[in-house]
Design goal:
The protein is mainly α. It is built from 5 helices and no strands. The chain has one domain. The N and C termini lie far apart (69 Å).
Length: 142
């Protein structure tokens, strides 16, 4: 595979990832809407458990999609590095891509859910926010 095909496949993977990310963010919004509906004494324990399960499922899917994005970037980097190592002349775009932070930290190519610390922190914050909205009791106003 040459560098043009590698960059094209990477762009297709990123476009697909963006479409799935929009779906996950919509479902995350739905999960937060459900969480507000069962907040405090407004919801039963069964409803809270169901909303918690739905929210955690959405968060898991978001983590998988973010990990897929990083895998696409890392696999394109590995492919471009092997093309460069074979002695082929690299285009300006391929050289610029290899100069990004994604290219600097690529080791063994493997799919990692918790591989990107910023994504992990983002989803951890979303999880804490969702669980806090669902399970924290509301203090009655006097």
């Amino acid at each position: 595979m040459d560098q043009y095909q590698t960059l094209t496949l990477m762009q297709m993977a990123l476009i697909q990832n963006a479409i799935f990310s929009m779906g996950v963010f919509f479902l995350l919004w739905v999960a937060f809407r459900f969480a507000v509906r069962v907040q405090g004494a407004q919801g039963t324990v069964v409803a809270k458990v169901l909303v918690t399960g739905f929210g955690l499922f959405v968060i898991w899917q978001g983590m998988v999609i973010f990990a897929s994005r990083m895998f696409a970037l890392h696999s394109a980097t590995k492919s471009l590095q092997s093309i460069k190592a074979s002695g082929q002349a690299m285009s300006v775009q391929a050289d610029a891509f290899l100069g990004t932070p994604f290219a600097a930290k690529v080791g063994d190519l493997q799919f990692q859910i918790f591989g990107d610390p910023l994504s992990t922190i983002f989803w951890l914050i979303c999880t804490l926010m969702l669980l806090t909205v669902i399970w924290k009791p509301i203090k009655p106003s006097n």
